Amino acid sequence: MDQSKNISSGFANFPIPAGAGVGLKPEHFQDILENKPDIGWFEIHAENYMGAGGPPHHFLSLIRDIYPISVHGVGLNIGGQGPLDKEHLARLKMVVERYQPFLFSEHLAWSSHDTVFYNDLLPLPYNDETLALVVTHIDQVQDVVGRQMLLENPASYVAFKSTDMAEIDFLAEVVARTGCGLLLDVNNVYVAGTNHDYSPTDYLDRFPLEHVFEIHLAGHSETIEKSGTRVLIDAHDRAVIDKVWGLYEGLVAQGVIVPTLIEWDNDVPDWATLYGEAQKVDQIVDVNRVRYGEHV
Amino acid sequence: MVNTSDIQKSFARALLDQPGELPDDLTSYSQPAPVERFNIYRNNVHVGLIDAICAKYPVVLKLVGEEFFRGMARCYIRSNPPASPMIINYGHTFPEFLKTFEHVQDVPYLMDVARLERLRLEAYHAADAISLNVADLVLIDRDGIGELVFLLHPSARVMKSGFAVVSIWEANMADLDMLSGDALSRSEEALIIRPRLDVEILKLPRCGSDFIEALGSGMTLEDANIHALGRDREFDLQLNLSGLIQCGAIIGFSS
Lengths: 296, 255
Description:
The complex is a heterodimer. By secondary structure, chain A is α/β, with parallel strands linked by helices. Helices cover 38% and strands 20% of the residues of chain A. Chain A has an eight-stranded parallel β-barrel with strand order 1-2-3-4-7-9-10-13, surrounded by four helices. In chain A, strands 5-6 form a two-stranded antiparallel ribbon. By secondary structure, chain B is mainly alpha-helical. The radius of gyration of chain B is 24 Å and the shape is elongated. Classes of the chains: A alpha/beta, B mainly alpha. β8 of chain A pairs antiparallel with β1 of chain B.
C-alpha cells in the first residue's frame, strides 16, 4: 500500500491518507485481511464497536494494524434539544482512544428525544436557537473526546417554517464558534438540493471548502410524491450516480483533495464492487494531480 | 414561533404513532403539508428497527415466518422503542414481549428460543478472555480443589427450558426438519459461550446450568457441587467440570 501519498493537514499526530476509503463492513473483514487491498483507509460507525469484546473488535484491531481508520458517529444527537447522553459520549471517547482515528465525525441531525433513540438522522430547523444548541453540543463533544470533530451536512426530506438561516450559513457559524471541521457529503448535497429545489452546484459554490477535511459519496433511491414531485432518499444502498461523481470532480478540480469515502451501508455489495467505486475516486484525484503538475 | 423543543417532541411522537399525523412546523416546496415526506423518516425508523430485531432473532423469525415476524416486531418497537443509541443491545426485552404477545401463545417454546438467541447475542459482544486449558488445570492440587473458586469466561451464559430449546435452535440453523411431539417438549439446558470468535451453543447435562450459575456466583467448587446435587442427586461433578474446561468456560481460579 502506498502510504507516501499523505497530504498536508492540520492533524499533525494523525497523518491523513489521500484518496479513497470505504465504509468497513463485517462482510468484507476476511477479504480485506487475506488480500490487503491497496486502499487508503476505512471508516467505521462508532456504535458498532461499542461492545465489550468479540469479533467486531478482533477484526477491527487487525485491520487497524494495516490501515488508517476514521470514526463516524451515528448516535450522538448533536441537534437534539435535550442534553447529550454522557454515557454515550464516554463510549465514543473509548472508541476514539482505542482506535486512534485520523478523523472523527458526526451529523448535523438529532436522533433521540426524551428517553427514546430513533435510530435515524432527523432534521432540524436552522435558526438562532438550534445554532446555540448545536454549538453547545459540539463544544462538549470536542472537550470530552479531546479531538476536533467534523460535522456532516445532512440529507433531508422536509423543511421547517421556523428556519430563518441558510444551511451553509448555519454550518459556517458552527465552524466559527466551535472550531470543528466539516465533512462534506456530496450525495447529501444532491439529495437535499433536489428535495428542496435548489441547485447543488450553487450550494457547493457557497460551501466553506477550506474547512472540509473529508468527503462522503453514496448512492440514493428515489420516490415520487402524489403531486408528481421527485423526492430522493439517502439510502446508501447502491452505486454513486454520475451527477454526484460530476459534482465531486468539480470539487477536486478546485483543489479540494481530501480523504473521500464510499458509503454503502445497505444491500452491501461484494468487495470487488465496492473497491471498484473507491478506485474511481483515486482516478479522479490522480487525474487532477497531474493537471496541477504534482508528483503522483 | 414554535420552539425546537416542541418541534422535536411533536416530530418524535409522530414517528412511532399511527400514520397520517404531521408534526408541527414542517413544510416543503412541493407540498405545504408534507405528510409523504415525513413518512420517509417514519418508514426509515420502523424498517431500521424491525430489521435490527430480525437480525437478532433469526430462528424465531424462521419459526413464525418473516411476514408474521415483521408484524410482531412492529408491535414490539412501538411498545419498546430503543432507550439508547446502543442498537447492538436493542431488543433484549423481546423474549419477555413474546411471553405476553397474544398471537404466539400457541407456540409455547417461542419465548425460550428467543431467550437463547438473546444470550447468543450477549455472548457475541461480551468481553474477551483467555480460557485455561487442561494443562493449566492438571497443576491444581487435587486435595484442595474443592476449596477453589473458578472464574468463568465473561461470555458464558446458561439457560434452562421446559422445551428442547437447543435442538430446536440447531435444527433450524441447519435447515433440518423441525422437531415435533415428545422431542419438542423434552427439557433442555444450554451453555452459550464464545471462547474465541465463534459463539457456541452446547447442551448441558441435567442441572449443569445450576452448577455453572453456582460457580458464577462465586461459590467454591465443593459448594457448587453440593448445590447441584441438591437439584439432582445424580449430578456428575467430573462430567460437568471436564465439559466446562473443554469448552473453554474456565478462565482462572483462586483459593
